[in-house]
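Quick one, tokens below:
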């Protein structure tokens, strides 16, 4: 019996995203992702419009990187990798990890030179992967590479009111709750961005509900947010301490004792209140080491400067420049993210201020101005480059 290996296609896996999407991800499109192979090549079909789908090559050592929207790893995918490793001698190694909470990344280490061809057909991005010397044995013609122009996406800001539900955040001496105050400011900010600047914004929570930190990061990715801003009004051990602060992520620990204290207490939220914390925290740990993170932190610091320049007009600042600390909620690999401490709720005067609608309005306006000014500057830079 003869089997035409070149024509026989082995279905490695084919999954609808809706099947892999637990909990919050009901809004995901049921785009189908498949990975098949014939004698010489690995074939992928990915939704072309989803910009999270990426296939590219890294060198020294030669690696093919495949990113696809996926919040958890289906067993079919794990199996597919085992098959690929066994079937193709030019695949030295195949690894699967999370690139971000909603993007799975396969890294294939290749002996020799990888060859990638791609084409787009009916909204499906088709990618074939092989190795240079193996490519000579592949009988079929190499598809022509085409690119689909991407429509300009309207700007979107993900606003994250800190804490909520069973996690009250800090509580002032007069009984003011951080979780309530920051929700008011966040809601005002959303309205102001929309009405004054035509910028669309989405909140991670609309009500007094608990949302784990990694879900907040994940929501920003799901909405393909251009910016992420987390709003807080924490406490400190010394009730004399006052003023607003802006934080971006640090990869190397906190810049000051205050930053360390605040980030440690914020990050403990998931440990205290979220039962799934241990498994999901892995996402956040992995994203920290990604190459994209450096560029994102740079942009986050820039975003933070635009916010600080506007906050200082309405309230005094604990530090006039953005600081850095390891806040888990800022660990998006590609979305510039900052955390704003609007005031210290443990300071008597500031607790009073935080409860006043006039102060909440002033702070929301300052944040809206800062966001708008960051976008204007970004646009200018993009036009110049
Ligand atoms: Zn807080």
């Amino acid at each position: 019996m003869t089997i035409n290996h070149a024509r026989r296609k082995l279905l490695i896996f084919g999954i609808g995203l809706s099947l892999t999407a637990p909990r919050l991800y009901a809004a995901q499109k049921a785009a189908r992702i498949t990975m098949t192979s014939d004698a010489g090549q690995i074939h992928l079909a990915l939704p072309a419009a989803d910009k999270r789908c990426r296939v590219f090559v890294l060198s020294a050592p030669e690696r093919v990187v495949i990113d696809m929207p996926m919040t958890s790893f289906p067993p079919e995918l794990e199996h597919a990798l085992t098959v690929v490793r066994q079937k193709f001698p030019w695949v030295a190694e195949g690894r699967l990890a999370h690139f971000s909470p909603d993007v799975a990344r396969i890294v294939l280490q290749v002996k020799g030179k990888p060859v990638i061809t791609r084409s787009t057909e009916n909204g499906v991005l088709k990618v074939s992967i092989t190795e240079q010397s193996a490519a000579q044995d592949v009988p079929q013609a190499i598809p022509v590479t085409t690119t689909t122009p991407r429509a300009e996406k309207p700007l979107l800001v993900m606003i994250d009111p800190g804490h909520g539900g069973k996690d009250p955040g800090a509580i002032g001496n007069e009984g003011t709750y951080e979780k309530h105050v920051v929700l008011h400011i966040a809601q005002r900010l959303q309205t102001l961005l929309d009405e004054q600047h035509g910028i669309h914004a989405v909140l991670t929570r609309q009500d007094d509900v608990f949302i784990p930190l990694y879900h907040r990061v994940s929501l920003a990715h799901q909405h393909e947010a251009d910016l992420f801003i987390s709003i807080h009004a924490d406490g400190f051990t010394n009730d004399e301490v006052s003023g607003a602060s802006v934080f971006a992520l640090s990869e190397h620990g906190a810049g000051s004792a205050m930053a360390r204290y605040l980030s440690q207490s914020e990050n403990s939220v998931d440990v205290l209140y979220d039962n799934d914390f241990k498994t999901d925290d892995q996402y956040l740990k992995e994203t920290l080491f990604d190459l994209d993170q450096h560029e994102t932190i740079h942009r986050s610091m820039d975003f933070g400067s635009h916010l600080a320049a506007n906050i200082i007009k309405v309230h005094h600042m604990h530090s006039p420049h953005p600081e850095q600390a390891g806040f888990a909620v800022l660990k998006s690999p590609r979305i510039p993210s900052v955390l704003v401490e609007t005031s210290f709720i443990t300071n008597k005067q500031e607790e009073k201020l935080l409860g006043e609608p006039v102060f909440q309005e002033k702070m929301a306006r300052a944040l809206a101005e800062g966001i708008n000014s960051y976008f204007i500057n970004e646009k200018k830079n993009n036009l110049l480059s």
